[in-house]
Amino acid sequence: MNVQLLNKKEAIFESTLKLINEHGFHGTPMSQIATHANVATGTIYHYFNSKDELILELFKYCREKTNEHIFNFDEDLAYKERFFYIWNRLVDYYLTHKETFWFIEQFYSSPYYELIKQKKTTYYGVDKMYLFFEEGIKSGIIRNVSFYTLISVYIGSATSHVKMVTYGFCKMQTKGREDLIEIIWNGVKNQ
């Protein structure tokens, strides 16, 4: 795909992301997305057959961008350092990309998530997290518990922390974040 086409597609994604956060899935018509992205409505239909397809592809786009950010680390880091690094990078990404965070939260609570589940996809990055936890279990560093238990503790705490900061219930303090990830680590590490 050439740069001009990629820029148009990204403009469509970014406009859709912004507008869905402001107006919701149903309050964001394709014509409004086209106007906001400064493209013709027909251009959107060149890339996406329907609004549903656009939203599913936007979810993929958001997950890929997030995973590019959080899994960008030095492979030589010890497992514990990577554990802390990935979690902190996720929190940082969501705090600086709030529209992405709220879109993903809204997506998981919508019928669109059911469409993704039917496609039996890897949820765009869940495989990386699975392999990361599997490495920790196989090497005896973390407890041998289910992936869903680990992801609930690890990602659940990150998203909860982002919400607490966003809602203003707590300030983003380095010490508080360090304490939180240390508690998570102590709960999952092999004793």
TrEMBL record:
Signal peptide: none
DNA-binding region: 29-48
InterPro entries, sorted: Homeodomain-like_sf, HTH-type_Tx_Regulator, HTH_TetR, TetR-like_HI_0893_C
Protein's recorded name: TetR/AcrR family transcriptional regulator
Keyword DNA-binding: yes
Highest taxon of source: Bacteria
UniProt KW keywords: DNA-binding
Annotated organism of origin: Sphingobacterium gobiense
Domain HTH tetR-type: 6-66
Coiled coil: none
GO molecular function, one term: DNA binding
